Amino acid sequence: MSESLENFTSHISESLAKSGIECKTETLNGELIGYAKPEDILAILAFLRDDSQCLFKILTDICGVDYPEREDRFEVNYNLISLKYNRRLRIKVYVDETTPIPSACSLYNSANWYEREVWDMYGVRFDGHPDLRRILTDYGFDGHPQRKDFPLTGYVEMRYDPDKKRVVYEPVKLDQEFRNFDFLSPWEGTKYVLPGDEKAGKS
Question: How far apart are CA 136 and CA 120, in angstroms?
């Protein structure tokens, strides 16, 4: 670790410690990473944004990772950039399926959609979010697709029904089990005629 980076990490830890906030920091593969408790995340983000030696004014992303074998299975990452000092910083927060994280929308406008995405994909709740609803899946979608225990095929499939003139949901039906797929033909196992195939059969 360079001397300037070491001084920077010490400044963060010592300054937050004066306010009774613990934020462990480390460098991993040249990246600066901090670890925070859910209840401390807003205070830490506010400090990193406003402190004259930090000035992390840009929140580039909030993303989730699922480790189902852990007690706190979800890792929520806040990726920050300081243009003033040309630095990047990642803050990690660990929570279980029921523990909410305070919303960072009051500190960063960009947090609004990022938190909605994490909620939609992983089911991590953000307390105080002004509009926490699904953003990538349908409003009636069942489950959270990025969880490791979510089935690859999903629970339902959707299609447009021309008779009902609306989108309908149906249970997933697979013509061939994944484990038995031999890759010889992508059409093997289908029992229906695709539009246009009936013409090919007559010629």
Answer: 7
Amino acid occupying residue 35:
Y
Residues in CB range of 66: below 8 A, 6 or more apart = 73, 74, 75, 122, 146, 147, 148
CA distances to 63, 89, 108 from 78, in Å: 7, 8, 11
Domains and CATH numbers, the chain: 3-127 (3.30.460.80)
pLDDT tens figures, 104-127: 999 999 999 999 999 999 999 999
Nearest alpha-carbon partner for 121 in 102, 136, 133, 110: 136
Residues of the chain with pLDDT under 50: 203
Please report, for the chain, how many H helices and E strands are present, in that order.
4, 9
